[in-house]
Write a structure and sequence with these properties.
Layout lengths: L1 H28 L6 H8 L25 E6 L1 H4 L8 H9 L2 E6 L13 H7 L7 E5 L2 H5 L21 H16 L3 E4 L7 H17 L2 E3 L5 H4 L3 H7 L8 H20 L2
Parallel strand pairs: 1-2, 1-3, 3-4, 4-5
Helix pairs in contact: 1-2, 5-7, 7-8
């Protein structure tokens, strides 16, 4: 009986530890069943104050993007996980009056790990038209230590190893080209403490040369990353996720510049 009781106590302690870890992931990174805890954490952040709300976005008359369809594929940064579900994609859609398709799920990877991966969601995306395709270089692949792989000589989707970062990126590019034949923009996160993500950025630059796509390289943009402590506190909810102030004041001008260049050819 004592051994059985001891086993039950161990199992209960293990269950409590796992639950606590999952709750922490929800609170810190907006992952899993406790993701609402992250909303509670970020709702009162100064960078999410009403003054930075979507309704205060200044419209750009006669934008070249007006009436166009822009597809956004990504994870938590594209979703706006630390900013009430509002991201740069939403600000830009309001400012330029285009139709936005925001396919963004927090915690997901480029590589094909299941139904929620970038590849699986792209394959299921039901739209026959895209005038511009914007894709996030996910931080989750770096966090999960996904193999980088190597750039292929092929341009055919079936040739790529989608269990690697390189193969997943190339599959996404090939699929977008075949489906929509529109300009493609990949964007990276700004600098944070991740050697693995830096390797992914370098890989993306190599792939971009092969596929002739646009890259918004926040990672290597030294002036962009040169923030004061006060600015960083306002613009970022954590090391990875911007606030509404971060998206609207810090990210949007750079995103807008490249998107307009891509749209105008």
């Amino acid at each position: 009986m004592k051994i059985k009781k001891k086993r039950i106590i161990i199992l209960l302690c293990a269950a409590a530890a796992v639950t606590a870890w999952i709750a922490f992931c929800g609170y810190q990174w907006c992952w899993g069943p406790f993701s609402l805890l992250h909303d509670i954490k970020t709702n009162n952040h100064p960078g999410n104050a009403p003054v930075y709300g979507l309704e205060n976005t200044e419209r750009l008359p006669d934008s070249p993007l007006r009436g166009k369809t822009v597809v956004f594929l990504g994870s938590s940064v594209t979703c706006g996980s630390a900013s009430g579900g509002v991201s740069f994609a939403d600000y830009l859609a309001v400012r330029h009056d285009f139709h936005s398709i925001k396919e963004a799920v927090p915690g997901t990877t480029l590589v094909d790990t299941g139904a929620s991966s970038y590849i699986s969601r792209l394959d299921r995306l039901e739209t026959d038209k895209a005038d511009l395709f914007i894709c996030q270089l996910s931080t989750n692949d770096a966090t999960q230590n996904i193999p980088l792989g190597a750039v292929s000589e092929s341009f055919e989707p079936a040739a790529f190893d989608t269990s690697t970062v390189a193969g997943a990126i190339e599959y996404i590019l090939a699929s977008a080209r075949q489906r929509w034949d529109c300009p493609v923009v990949f964007y990276t996160n700004p600098r944070y403490d991740s050697e693995a993500y830096g390797d992914m950025v370098a890989l993306l630059e190599e792939i971009a040369g092969k596929w002739d796509i646009y890259v918004i390289d926040f990672w290597n943009d030294a002036p962009f990353n040169d923030l004061s402590a006060e600015e960083r506190s306002l613009y970022m909810a954590d090391a990875i996720h911007p606030t509404q102030a971060g998206y609207s004041l810090w990210w949007m001008p750079k995103m807008e510049e490249v998107m307009l260049a891509a749209a105008e050819g």
